[in-house]
Automatic annotation (TrEMBL):
InterPro entries, per the entry: AAA+_ATPase (IPR003593), ABC_transporter-like_ATP-bd (IPR003439), ABC_transporter-like_CS (IPR017871), Metal_Ion_Import_ABC (IPR050153), P-loop_NTPase (IPR027417)
Example of a GO MF term: ATP binding
Protein name per the record: Metal ABC transporter ATP-binding protein
A Pfam family reported for this protein in Swiss-Prot or TrEMBL: ABC_tran
SUPFAM superfamilies named in the record: P-loop containing nucleoside triphosphate hydrolases
Record keywords: ATP-binding, Nucleotide-binding, Transport
SMART domains for the chain: AAA
Annotated family: Belongs to the ABC transporter superfamily.
Length: 251
C-alpha cells in the first residue's frame, strides 16, 4: 500500500502469529503503516485487534514473524517515547487515586530519569497537552471522576505530553460523547499532519471515512488494507463479519 522503504515505515508487522494456549489470536498477520497516516482497524469481537496492539507495543512476542517501529524494536520505541498506547477503558483502574494532571504527567516519565522529578519543561508539556484536549479545568480531579469521553481525552493528552509520534488507540470512541469524539478526531488528524501515525480500532464504521486515510480488516490475519471507502464495501465487510455491519452494530 505504501512506497516507503522498511526503515521509514512507522509500523511494520510481518507474519505475526500469536497464541494464548490453544487459542490462535493472530495468524501470520502483516501490517505496514506509513508515516503521516491515520488507519482504522476493523474486525469483529475476538478478531485479534487488542492482540495486534499488544504485539505492536512489544507486550506480546509473536510465535512467528517480527515487529519494527520506525525500523527499531517496540521496546526501544516505547523507551524513546515515540510509541504510545491508549488502552480500552476496561483495562484501566479508574479508582486509582491519581489526578488527571498526574495521569498526563506519566507520559513524561520516560524522559525524567529514575528520580521522576518533573522539571519546568515537563509541566509545560503537560499543561499544553491538557489544553489541547480541553481538560485544563479538570486537571486536579481524580481520573475516575471524569466522563467516559473526558477519560479518553486524558489518555490522549498523555500520549501528546509524551511526544509520541506513533499512537495506538483501542476503541477510543466507545461510550464517548460527541464533543470528545470531535476533539480526539481533530487531534489525531493533527498528529498525522505533523508526520505521525495513528492506528485506531473502532466499531464505528460510519465515522471511519472522515477519520482515517486507510482501513484494515482483521480476522486473525489482515484480510484487506486500503482506502476506507473501498475496504468498507459491503462485500468486504461480509468477509470479516459475515453480515453487513453498516446496517447493524458492528460488534
Ligand atoms: N489472555 C487471554 N487468554 C486467552 N485467550 C485470550 C486472551 N486474550 C485474548 N484471548 C482470545 O484471543 C482472541 C483475540 O482476542 P482480542 O482481545 O485480541 O480480540 P479483539 O478483536 O480485540 O476483541 P474485542 O473487539 O472484543 O476487544 C479471542 O478469541 C480471545 O478470546
Amino acid at each position: 500500500m505504501n512506497t516507503q522503504c522498511n526503515a521509514d515505515l512507522a509500523i511494520n508487522v510481518t507474519d505475526a502469529t500469536v497464541h494464548y494456549g490453544q487459542v490462535q489470536a493472530l495468524d501470520h498477520a502483516s501490517l505496514q503503516l506509513a508515516q503521516g497516516t491515520v488507519c482504522g482497524l476493523v474486525g469483529m469481537n475476538g478478531s485479534g485487534k487488542s492482540t495486534l496492539f499488544k504485539t505492536i507495543m512489544g507486550q506480546i512476542k509473536p510465535d512467528t514473524g517480527s515487529v519494527k517501529i520506525s525500523g527499531t524494536d517496540p521496546q526501544q520505541a516505547r523507551k524513546s517515547g515515540k510509541l504510545a498506547y491508549v488502552p480500552q477503558s476496561e483495562a484501566v483502574d479508574w479508582n486509582f487515586p491519581i489526578s488527571v494532571r498526574d495521569v498526563v504527567m506519566t507520559g513524561r516519565y520516560g524522559q525524567m530519569g529514575w528520580t521522576r522529578r518533573a522539571k519546568k519543561k515537563d509541566h509545560a508539556a503537560v499543561n499544553e497537552a491538557l489544553g489541547r484536549v480541553e481538560l485544563t479545568d479538570f486537571a486536579n480531579r481524580q481520573i475516575g471522576q471524569l466522563s467516559g469521553g473526558q477519560k479518553k481525552r486524558a489518555f490522549v493528552a498523555r500520549c501528546i505530553a509524551q511526544g509520541a509520534s506513533i499512537m495506538l488507540l483501542d476503541e477510543p470512541f466507545a461510550g464517548v460523547d460527541k464533543r470528545s469524539e470531535a476533539t480526539i478526531t481533530k487531534l489525531l488528524r493533527e498528529v498525522a499532519d505533523e508526520g505521525g501515525s495513528v492506528l485506531i480500532s473502532t466499531h464505528d464504521l460510519h465515522a471511519l471515512p472522515d477519520l482515517a486515510d486507510e482501513a484494515v480488516l482483521l480476522m486473525r490475519k489482515v484480510l484487506m488494507h486500503g482506502r476506507p471507502e473501498v475496504v468498507l464495501r459491503a462485500e468486504n465487510l461480509a468477509l470479516a463479519f459475515g453480515l453487513d455491519p453498516m446496517k447493524r452494530d458492528a460488534s
